[in-house]
Amino acid sequence: MKPVISRILWIICFALLFAGFLSGFVSAKVDVSLNVTLSDYEINPGDSFSVSAKVTNIDTGENLTYNQKIDFVIYADGVVVYEDIKHAELTYNESKTFTVSSNNFDNDVWDGEDGELMNYKCGDMEIEVRISNDVSSESDRKTLHITGSKLNVGLTPSKPTPSSEIVVDVEDKTGEKLDDINVRITNLGDDEKWDSDDVMRIKETEDGKVTFDPLDEDFRFRDNPYGVYQLDVWDDGYCLFRDTFEVSNKLKITEVPENPYAGEEIRVKVLDIDDKRVENARIAVSGSKGFVGSYNSDSNGYVSFTLNEAGTYYLIASKTGYEDSDSVTINVRTKRSMNIKIEPIKQAIGKDVTITVTSEGGPIEGAEVTIKKPNGKKDVLSTSSAGKVIYKPALPGTYDITVKKRGYETTTSSFKAMNFFNITILGEKLHEEISVVVKNQDGDPVEDASVGLIGADITGLTNTEGKFTFILEEAGEYTLTVKKESYEDFSKKISIYGGLQLRINPEILDLGDSVAITVLDENGERIEAKIKITKPDGEKETIVKSSHTFVPELAGIYNVTASKDYYTSASSSFEVNPYPLDLDVWLSGKDLMVKATSGGEAVQNMSISVLTPDGDEILLITDNSGIARLDIKELNQTGTFVVSSAERNYEKRTITKDIKGLGGGLIPILLVLVAVISLLILIGAVLYIGHRKSKGTGTERKKGTGLSGL
Q: Domains in the chain, ordered, with CATH?
């Protein structure tokens, strides 16, 4: 009986508990209000803050029990950064505040180094709190402002490849390099969007930069280094810098021949973005008439094919797992032209002649070279791998060349083979033997060659030594000619020079004297030449004479040059002494007086330079008496005055005069008064004496008259 009762009691308890559970599950939601505040409404990047959410029971009919759940979610710009279930016991009008620090936000999106780094995004951010479940669904939001310093970030290379190192430079806005700044690169995967499970690598700057190993060497990325990457740079106090770059394995077609010709093999190479050869890449070729064909690359990435028609063709490389290459254009031309080069420039009998056949700068092997000799017979040769044939002409005359090869235009040329003179001229001076030595291309003397000199009545034949000798009596330009049958005519201009001498007498003279200038040849005979006289002031005078008498007008050194065609020039000089000059300097009242004389005679209109104590230069001109005056009082300067002559044709003279004072205005007046009074006294004395003498004479006359009357 007792076990049965015990079981009944357990069933009743379970039923009551289950009923209570059901009653809680189906109970109505409690109406609440929500008010959100932030501990800080403006923070720096990386700083933390708190979100406070005040929940108030505004339901007059229901209390909120602790067993009831409040779903509590915080959003930042629409992204969930925190979610939890809260509990509270609230009666009507009773409130409870839930406070959450940003340090408790989800690191994957808030501030973890592997996260979205929302805490470092500068600008306005909307913080929203939402509650629901056993309470009415409510939300409230506030604006958080994140402000910080801007980072200047550089990426090298700007378009990285899997094999290139990636260097990130970080500076502040002043250009200063920053250390210990977080730098992260993330492969965004196929969706090209950031996810917490994306492959990434993080480093800190040192000396303002971070260097990442090539992607194809980094175990994190090497399995698939291609795709879109996100670059994040951040640190406390600095705004998040974010950018993306793409690493793609794009095919490219290289070594494309420029304007190939129809019928010849075309060879191109397929590489990836890192310049690595790509095997089994497909090259699709199309032209104006549509698709032409496709060709696969070999183990070295090369593709070879032939286009037999001229025109414009387009090539595109493709392969699974690679991005198609850009389209490459090839312009195919018709048959190529060939060029013939014949060396040496002059072809000598019995000497090798090299014929080189090329096209577009490259040698043509196997070209058929037909050489027609002066007697009409033909020799047929074939070019070597260097595009050359060697031929030795045996007859004088013209050799015609015809070159042919399939795929090339037929080309012709010619050369003339002759014997050649090798001329040596010994001596080129007047009145001396001049020898012409004539040899052939092998260096052997040529006998009976006809030698002539155009411009002189000289002709003759070379002797057994190949020599012909003559003497010229006039300087000038002549044309030397040498001729002989089966030889190419030789002609050369030669110049025979004489020498000039200058005789100047005297070499030192005074102004007013004359100098005789005479031009002589190397034999001492007078010869007419151009005489150029350069005067001391640089002015030049030119005359054509054998002698010239020259009267210099300036003192100084004169340079004389005599020149004549086909004569070596001669130069000399002579010196002309200046007139003697005396300078006297004195002070007269307020005037500084300067007198210039030469040989006791006054020098008129001479320029006198006066350097004042203040450094001013004043030019004076002497008058008819050779005197120049400077008003010292008007200058109002004392000290040392330097007086110099400034005339080229007079000796240079310099005198210094020290003037210690200018004097007052009263002393000159007193001096004048004394002079006037002295003059008046002198005049009075003269008049007085004259008056006394006139009285004495009259008395004597009277006395004489009286005696005579007695």
A: 26-146 (2.60.40.10), 152-247 (2.60.40.1940), 252-332 (2.60.40.10), 339-418 (2.60.40.1930), 422-496 (2.60.40.10), 498-577 (2.60.40.1930), 582-666 (2.60.40.3080)
Let me know: does 628 contact 622? Beta carbons within 8 Å.
yes
**Average pLDDT, rounded, for the chain:** 88
Query: Chain centroid to CA 76: how far?
Result: 54
Mention every residue, 6+ apart, whose C-beta is less than 8 A from residue 336.
261, 359, 360, 407, 408, 409
Tokens of 282: 């497909």
Q: Give dist(CA 583, CA 597) in Å, integer.
A: 7
Copy the structure tokens of residue 140: 């409230």
The torsion of the CA quartet 82, 84, 90, 93, rounded to 10 degrees, works out to 20
Judge whether residue 411 has pLDDT over 80: yes
pLDDT at 456 over 70: yes
- Residue matched to tokens 């009286």: 706
pLDDT at 668 over 70: no
Best CA proximity match to 53, nearest among 75, 23, 20, 27: 75
Per-residue pLDDT tens over the stretch 528-544:
999 999 999 999 999 99
pLDDT for res 235: 94
pTM for the complete prediction? 0.42
Q: How many CA atoms lie within 13 A of 570 on its CB side?
A: 21
SS3 556: strand
Most confident of 122-126, 656-660, 703-707: 122-126
Backbone angles phi, psi at 489, to 5 degrees: -60, 140
Residues in the chain: 710
**Tokens found for residue 614:** 């203040």
Tokens of 310: 């001229």
Residue pointed to by tokens 């005074």: 510
List the 79-86 sheet strands across, edge first. Answer: 42-43, 138-146, 123-133, 70-76, 79-86
pLDDT recorded at residue 682: 81
* Residue (of 82, 274, 239) closest to 165 by Cα position: 274
Q: What are phi and psi of 316, to 5 degrees?
A: -135, 130
Least confident stretch, 111-115, 138-142, 213-217, 507-511: 111-115
pLDDT of residue 27: 54
Q: Give yes or no for a contact between 180 and 205, defined as CB atoms under 8 angstroms apart.
A: yes
The residues with which 418 forms a beta bridge, in sequence order, are 348
DSSP string, 664-699: -SHHHHHHHHHHHHHHHHHHHHHHHHHHHHHHHHHH
d(CA 118, CA 124): 11
- C-alpha 367 chain-centroid distance: 48
CA distance 50 to 52: 6
Distance CA 294, CA 304 (A): 10
Q: What angle do CA 368, 370, 373 make, to 5 degrees?
A: 165
**Pairing label, strands 498-505, 567-577:** parallel
The alpha carbon of residue 586 and the mean position of all alpha carbons in its chain are separated, in whole angstroms, by 65
3-state secondary structure of 120: helix
E runs forming strands in 497-649: 498-505, 508-510, 515-521, 529-534, 540-545, 547-550, 556-564, 567-577, 582-588, 591-598, 601-602, 607-611, 617-621, 627-631, 639-645
pLDDT exceeds cutoff 80 at 706: no
Residues 366-372, mean pLDDT to the nearest whole number? 95
Structure tokens given for 472: 């010229």
